[in-house]
UniProtKB/TrEMBL annotation:
GO molecular function, one term: transmembrane transporter activity
Principal localisation: membrane
The species this protein was found in: Candidatus Tagabacteria bacterium CG10_big_fil_rev_8_21_14_0_10_40_13
Lineage: Bacteria, Candidatus Tagaibacteriota
Phosphoprotein among keywords: no
Protein name, UniProt field: Major facilitator superfamily (MFS) profile domain-containing protein
Subcellular localization(s) per the UniProt record: Cell membrane
Annotated membrane topology: Multi-pass membrane protein
CC per GO annotation: plasma membrane
Length: 201
């Protein structure tokens, strides 16, 4: 039987639920932009994806630098929470988007949320992973997310085909919210370090 410590279990469960939520949007995102956004084109799809990844990639390095400079894990924890809540809230804003500019703005903030969330998430996982189980626990994390996204993608196609795009973003937002809430269960385990180097749990 594989024994996994509590923090890693929570991180894996949270990541799974969160990515199942996001996985509802990814398969239909391009179709949504072309069919539901005024002036939506294939170019809009490419630009929207580029804006998200550019923003996220630019911000991750300075965020990582800042988080590494600060001792303890509270800054990492609150950065992670803020980022996931930003992404969660933005899932619902797609319901209000009407023009390409709306999409561009949402994608910029999605990139900000992604940088704030995933930069410290990897740090948390790396610090708390069980010794001698690194390969297994990373594999469990990645495989569970992969299975979740696969299932979400299949269901997203069915839901969009029969009920339209609105339920997709609502389901995505709700699941992402619950995935983010799970992170609160590791709040009391976050390490706080004073300037003199002593650590308090």
């Amino acid at each position: 039987m594989i024994r996994i410590n509590r923090i890693i279990r929570v991180l894996i469960a949270s990541d799974f639920i969160f990515h199942v939520g996001v996985g509802f949007v990814d398969p239909i995102f391009a179709v949504f932009l072309v069919e539901s956004i005024t002036g939506g084109t294939v170019q809009l799809v490419g630009t929207a994806v580029a804006i998200y990844w550019f923003t996220k990639s630019v911000l991750r390095l300075p965020i990582a630098y800042f988080l590494d400079k600060k001792r303890g894990e509270y800054d990492d924890f609150y950065s992670m929470l803020a980022g996931f809540f930003i992404i969660t809230g933005l899932q619902f804003t797609y319901l209000l988007a009407q023009t390409p500019n709306h999409i561009y703005i949402i994608q910029v903030f999605m990139g900000v949320g992604g940088a704030l969330a995933f930069t410290p998430w990897y740090g948390f996982f790396s610090r708390h992973i069980d010794k001698y189980r690194e390969n297994m626990e990373w594999s469990i994390s990645n495989s569970s997310v992969g299975f979740g996204i696969a299932g979400a993608g299949f269901l997203a196609g069915f839901v969009a085909e029969h009920f339209g795009f609105a339920p997709i973003f609502i389901i995505s937002g709700i699941l992402s919210f619950f995935g983010t809430l799970l992170l609160l269960f590791i709040g009391k385990n976050v390490q706080l370090k004073k300037r003199d180097g002593f650590s308090i749990r």
